[in-house]
Amino acid sequence: MSPVYAKYSRKYFLNLFYSIFEIIMPIIASAKKQLRQNKKRRARNDNFRELYREARVAFEKAIRENDLKAAQNIFLNQKGSDGKTTKSGLQSIIDKLVKKNIIHKNNGARKKARFVKMMKSIS
Questions:
Q1: Mean pLDDT, rounded, for 35-39
Q2: CB atoms within 10 A of CB 71
Q3: Nearest partner of 94 among 103, 86, 85, judged by Cα
Q4: Angle 29-64/105-122 helices, nearest 10 degrees?
Q5: Angle at which helices 29-64 and 68-76 cross, to 10°
Q6: What φ, ψ does residue 101 adopt, rounded to 5°?
Q7: How distant, in Å, are the alpha carbons of 4, 17, 31, 36, 38 from that of 23?
Q8: 75-118 pLDDT per residue, tens
Q9: Residue 117 pLDDT
Q10: Residue 33 needs a FRET pair 20 to 30 A away by CA distance; which of 6, 59, 60, 103 works?
């Protein structure tokens, strides 16, 4: 990416792209409904992708620091700082993405296999 665009994120460009489509409003009722559905689905998918990204970044940080215990904790079941609240582990987040057809099942299996391989490399 060129230095001019380095300060802008991918999300910025996607929002710009979708806002251009909203300027071109559909006329037919079914097309209007499809636009509404697509907005809802995109927002939902973005939330799931963000959950995955946060868990993946935390997992990769634990791998870089050679902290196997933390990596396993993040991959299987992530505990909060108070020790009681739990977030979904990276593995279950990937399974949810597959179940909701956000990513393909083979893509999900490949991601999980690669994360397990990363954990085995530091053990």
A1: 90
A2: 24
A3: 103
A4: 10
A5: 160
A6: 60, 30
A7: 26, 10, 14, 14, 15
A8: 988 665 556 555 678 999 999 999 999 999 999 999 999 999 99
A9: 94
A10: 103
End-to-end Cα separation, the chain, in angstroms = 36
Hey, is 4 helix, strand or coil?
coil
Report the CATH number that the domain containing residue 100 is assigned in CATH.
1.20.58.110
Residues contacting 43, CB < 8 A, separation 6+? none
- 106 within some domain: yes
Measured between alpha carbons, how far is 35 from 13 in angstroms, rounded to an integer? 19
Judge contact between 48 and 107, C-beta under 8 A.
no
Taking every pair of C-alpha atoms in the chain, what is the biggest distance, in angstroms? 59
